[in-house]
Amino acid sequence: MVTNPIDYVEPLGKAGASGFTFHVEILKDSQCSFLFLVSLSKDTVLPFAENWQELIPKIKSKAMRPGVALKPGTLIEEVYPL
Fold first, then answer.
1. What is the DSSP string of 12-23?
2. Number of folded domains in the chain?
3. Residue 16: which region, alpha, beta or left (left: phi > 0; alpha: psi -120 to 50)?
4. Which of the four pLDDT bands, split at 50, 70 and 90, describes residue 77?
5. What is the pLDDT of residue 3?
6. Contacts of 21 (CB under 8 A, 6+ apart)
7. Residue 53 lies inside a defined structural domain of this protein
8. Is residue 21 part of a domain?
9. Residue 78 forms part of a structural domain
10. Is 43 left (phi over 0), alpha (psi -120 to 50) or beta?
């Protein structure tokens, strides 16, 4: 788990990952953790809207599928902006 998912897009893309899943909560709250899942087989958090608008296209540019994870208790409406 890391706090700044965008730092991991390039290395995971180079490693051949086909997917990149991040917790929506990290995009809003620097106290939350980020989870990435590699489908094969630095500490700065940008504001929510700015971060996902940069993160998702970067994931796609590395030929990976973006995915969003929610913590229990997070409302599904939290991902509607995505």
1. HHHTT-SEEEEE
2. 1
3. left
4. confident
5. 74
6. 35, 36, 37, 66, 67, 68, 69
7. yes
8. yes
9. no
10. left
Residue 17 lies in a domain: yes
pLDDT in tens, 8-20: 999 999 999 999 9
Cβ atoms of 9 and 36 within 8 Å: the answer is no
DSSP 27-60: GT-TTS-B-------------HHHHHHHHHHHHH
Q: What is the pTM of this model?
A: 0.68
Residue type, 14: K
In which domain, by residue range, is 22 found? 6-71
Sort 14 into a burial class: Cβ within 10 Å, 0-12 / 13-18 / 19+.
exposed
